[in-house]
Amino acid sequence: MIFRDVREGRPYPEHGLSARDWARIPPRQVRLDDLVTTKRVLELDRLLTEDSTFFGDLFPHVVHWHGELFLEDGLHRAVRAALQQRRVIHVRVFDLDLLR
């Protein structure tokens, strides 16, 4: 199994982070099998595009909430890493648990 779980939608409350806010969070390594996806649909054309991060963040966005790591943005990058047989990926993690 690539991911810990596959779900549809974000179970956590809206965090309101902007792209600039995400950019301030330093990337760290996370195991792919610790991530819970928030999207069930994978778009093959986006998966195969070499420049898919040209206008966005190089690092996927993960929200830590209730002890779980939710992959909010970067599903295609995570799947590409898995296809390259990598078990870890660099992501930006926002800890929503700290705000509770």
From TrEMBL:
<protein>
    <recommendedName>
        <fullName>Type II toxin-antitoxin system VapB family antitoxin</fullName>
    </recommendedName>
</protein>
<dbReference type="InterPro" id="IPR014447">
    <property type="entry name" value="VapB-like_prob"/>
</dbReference>
<dbReference type="Pfam" id="PF23719">
    <property type="entry name" value="VapB"/>
</dbReference>
